[in-house]
Structure formats: C-alpha cells, structure tokens
Specification:
Blueprint lengths: L8 E5 L5 H12 L2 E6 L6 H14 L3 E5 L4 H8 L4 E6 L1 H11 L3 H11 L6 E7 L10 H20 L2 E6 L2 E6 L1
Parallel strand pairs: 1-5, 1-6, 2-3, 2-4, 4-5
Antiparallel strand pairs: 6-7
Helix pairs in contact: 5-6
GO molecular function: adenosylcobinamide kinase activity; ATP binding; cobinamide phosphate guanylyltransferase activity; GTP binding
Pathway: Cofactor biosynthesis; adenosylcobalamin biosynthesis; adenosylcobalamin from cob(II)yrinate a,c-diamide: step 6/7; Cofactor biosynthesis; adenosylcobalamin biosynthesis; adenosylcobalamin from cob(II)yrinate a,c-diamide: step 5/7
Organism: Rhizobium vallis
Length: 174
C-alpha cells in the first residue's frame, strides 16, 4: 500500500522496550492538549494493575479514552487542532478484534485510511512481534501476520517511524 506520509509518528518495539515512555515524551514535547487512547483491556488483576500504573504515571494532564475495538471511530471523535493523541497500542487492539471475531483487514484499512485526515498530532505505538520464531499454533501465526500487515500499512502512512530497543530509539523513516 503506498500513500503520502502524514504527520503521524509510528513507534514499534518489543515488550518493555521503552516504546510508551518515548511516545509519551514526544506528545508532552508538543505542548498540545494531551489525549491517550488505551486499547488494552483488563482480563485479570495483573493487567488491571498495569493499566492503573500507566494512568498514574501519566498523571492528570492526560485525557484517557479507553477504546478496545472501534479505534478509527474514536480517533475521529476526539481529533482536532491543538491536540496530540497517543494510541497505545495496536497489538492489544488486534488481540481485541480477534477475540471479538471482527474483520481485521477492514478495521486495519479503516484506520490506515483515516490517518491522513487527522488534524491532531498522532503518535501510535505497537509491539513488533515478527522478529522471533514462527509461532506453533494457528491463532498465534494469524496474529503475527495481521500485526505485520497492519504495521506495514501504518508505517506507509506515517511521516516518522521509530524502532525502540533497550530504551533507545532508532529512526527508520522521516
């Protein structure tokens, strides 16, 4: 998929690589009104504790919007000049879509198609899951494949793309 880049920043990396901290710092540096779209759902106490810690770490200067499924629609609803929106993260969103039996291709295309319309500064975070071994089961392979295709779509639309490892950003595009 080819497209002209937007001002969106796309950040990829592994678990606990420093992606979210890097993304939050980018948003804070804009000086714009801060919005955070959280795609994760608390399926257990441990995940709820993670969500609570992330909220506490961000503090009250962020408006948090929990959106596990309808990401493009939520982005459109809160988009606006003078705002910076952080989406964290696409792989949790994909998990939610798979668990709900949603049309992942259609949802991915809808998100990628919407990006050039954004008025807000967007920073989008996702976990890179395609660097390891081939997963042993079908669902895990489908997840990895959906994530890889979605990442390619978003990276094609983004003006900047970073890969984060050990808290260090590697600029890949822009």
């Amino acid at each position: 998929m080819t497209a002209s880049p937007t001002s969106a920043v796309f950040i990829l990396g592994g678990a606990r690589s420093g992606k979210s901290r890097f993304a939050e710092n980018l948003i804070t540096a804009t000086g714009l009104e801060r919005h955070y779209i959280a795609t994760g759902q608390a399926w257990d106490d441990e995940m709820q504790a993670r969500i609570d810690q992330h909220k506490a770490d961000r503090g009250p200067s962020w408006s948090t919007h929990e959106e596990p499924l309808d990401l493009a629609e939520r982005l459109a609803a809160i988009d606006g000049e003078g705002r910076a929106i952080l989406v964290d993260c696409l792989t949790l969103w994909l998990t939610n879509l798979m668990m709900e039996g949603r049309d992942i291709v259609a949802q991915s295309v809808a998100l990628a198609t919407w990006l050039p319309q954004a008025k807000a500064q967007l920073v989008i975070v996702s976990n890179e899951v395609g660097l390891g071994i081939v997963p042993e089961n079908r669902m895990a392979r489908e997840f990895r494949d959906h994530a890889g295709r979605l990442h390619q779509m978003i990276a094609a639309k983004a003006g900047e793309v970073y890969f984060i490892a050990a808290g260090l950003p590697l600029k890949m595009k822009g």
